[in-house]
Automatic annotation (TrEMBL):
One Pfam match: CP_ATPgrasp_2
Name of the protein in its database record: Circularly permuted type 2 ATP-grasp protein
Species of the source: Seonamhaeicola marinus
Highest rank taxon of the organism: Bacteria
Circularly permuted ATP-grasp type domain boundaries: 83-457
Length: 480
């Protein structure tokens, strides 16, 4: 397997940024070591490594749930063995950009639930906030410890044709995927022993320790009891909940394991009740407290919001943070950065049209074949319309829904996501990718794990990287 063979059969799409090769098929510097390794390894050997990675995922039980698949819902998460490599210079810009963004978003959430200066100064329309399903009136005037609302964030980035990283969306409610980042690295160590040190790849394995430290610091108690609250085994990210609880050395609990007495949260144990100080919750706002939100919820804890308001427990992330990752509010993040920090955004947004604006709606309808339309409160790649792939009938049906409530939708130009080599059917072939780095915000500042989850659209020509829509992932190497 020679480099010329890889390069000559590598089908670069015109106008697309490829992570490994320049447009004239010159190898990018950061890929030299892995490229040499691939040249000196037979296709049979690489196929064995691919098979080994599958076996390791099965053994570890690394699965996710697809809710709309009749063949069964548990799936092994597809993994591509060729790493995605980012240089330290590129990473520095990503890191600075994410820190800036999270700082502004945190200030925005604090402002929205308190003085609302940004609405009074008409930087953001008040209607947009009050119409948002994630705006929690129950959070008005509630101040979390150290004024931190977004402790854990997963920011989705894509690299466009100009080679620059753009923010696709901010995930501030219960961002998932970090267990796949950790698992992908463990698999890389097994299938490429010796190569990671040779490439000076920065470690991601410290993430659980960093997360635990930040969670611990978010409590006013000296030796706080931290727990992870899961909706239970039927949740799509249950594997991640168990993994993180185990790696942090904390209890994994469900709503029925907790009880509130005199505005204090306790965990039921065989030795009686034990006080809980910090809850890393993976339960959505709606199901958190049946006394305040969804009365039928059995996933949450009755009275937890009263304990939270009194400052007796820290909830991570704070309830109501979804106001800042709504897709309609996303368009205003660059304005927030200028407003709260008096700085220009380091990472750009993707141009976004709000269909509640008649002129935007008209423009999008005229250019629908170049647009992707999304629900403002959607996630997981569900409920989108990809204009270039949809039939006239699908477009017509989708637009009928849009016309019922245009402000519940946004549209963005269909972008050419950057591609990266994947090992598919015994050859290297480019596939579209995005990147979700994970940031943790504590009283001592924001820390971003060097790497993150690179998601891959495994279907040829597809732009949808979500695991629920047939995507997979690969290890992300940030090199010194």
């Amino acid at each position: 397997m020679h480099n010329s063979l890889i390069a000559s059969s590598y089908d670069l799409s015109s106008g697309t940024w490829d992570e490994m090769y320049t447009k004239d098929l010159k190898l990018r510097r950061q890929y030299e070591t892995i490229s040499n390794y691939l040249n000196n390894t037979s296709i049979e050997e690489l196929s064995k490594k691919e098979e080994l990675s599958k076996q390791l995922f099965i053994k570890e039980g690394v699965t996710f749930t697809v809710y709309n698949d009749s063949k069964g819902i548990e799936k092994i998460f597809p993994f591509d063995i060729i790493p995605r490599i980012i240089t330290s210079e590129e990473w520095k810009k990503i890191e600075d950009g994410i820190k800036q963004r999270i700082t502004a978003l945190n200030l925005f959430i604090k402002d929205i639930y308190n003085e609302q200066f940004i609405l009074k100064d008409e930087i953001i329309p008040a209607k947009l906030i009050y119409d948002c399903p994630y705006f929690l009136r129950e959070m008005k005037g509630v101040t979390p410890p150290f004024d931190i609302y977004v402790h854990i964030t997963g920011v989705d980035l894509i690299r466009n044709t100009d080679g620059e990283f753009y923010v696709l969306e901010d995930n501030l409610r219960t961002p998932s995927g970090v267990s796949y980042m950790l698992e992908n690295r463990e698999i890389s160590k097994r299938i490429f022993p010796g190569i990671l040190p040779k490439c000076s790849v920065l470690s991601v394995s410290d993430y659980p320790n960093i997360l635990y430290e930040k969670l611990r610091l978010c409590s006013n108690q000296d030796n706080p009891n931290v727990v992870l609250l899961t909706p239970g085994i039927y949740n799509s990210a249950y594997f991640e909940h168990t993994t993180l609880a185990r790696l942090m050395g904390i209890e994994l609990v469900e709503g029925s394991d907790l009880v509130v007495k005199d505005h204090i949260v306790y965990m039921k144990t065989t030795f009686g009740l034990k006080r809980v100080d910090v809850i890393y919750r993976r339960v959505d706002d709606d199901f958190l407290d049946p006394m305040e939100f969804n009365a039928n919820s059995v996933l949450g804890v009755a009275g937890i919001m009263s304990a939270y308001r009194k400052g007796n427990v820290t909830i991570v992330n704070a309830p109501g943070t979804g106001i800042a990752d709504d897709k309609a509010v996303y368009t205003y993040v660059p304005d927030m950065i200028r407003y709260y920090l008096n700085e220009e955004p380091i990472l750009k947004n993707i141009e976004t049209y709000q269909l509640g604006r008649p002129e935007d709606l008209e423009y999008v309808k005229k250019n629908i074949s170049k647009m992707v339309i999304k629900k403002t409160d959607g996630s997981g790649g569900y409920g989108m319309l990809m204009g270039h792939e949809a039939t006239d009938e699908e477009i017509s049906d989708y637009l009928k829904n849009v016309d019922k409530n245009p402000s519940a939708f946004i549209a963005q130009p269909i972008l050419k996501l950057s591609t990266t080599p994947c090992f598919i059917d015994g050859q290297l072939t480019p596939r579209c990718i995005d990147l979700r780095p994970f940031a943790v915000y504590g009283p001592d500042g924001i820390e971003i794990c060097p790497g993150g989850l690179t998601r891959v659209a495994l279907k040829k020509g597809s732009l949808v990287v979500n695991s629920s829509q047939g995507g997979g992932s690969k290890d992300t190497w940030v090199i010194k």
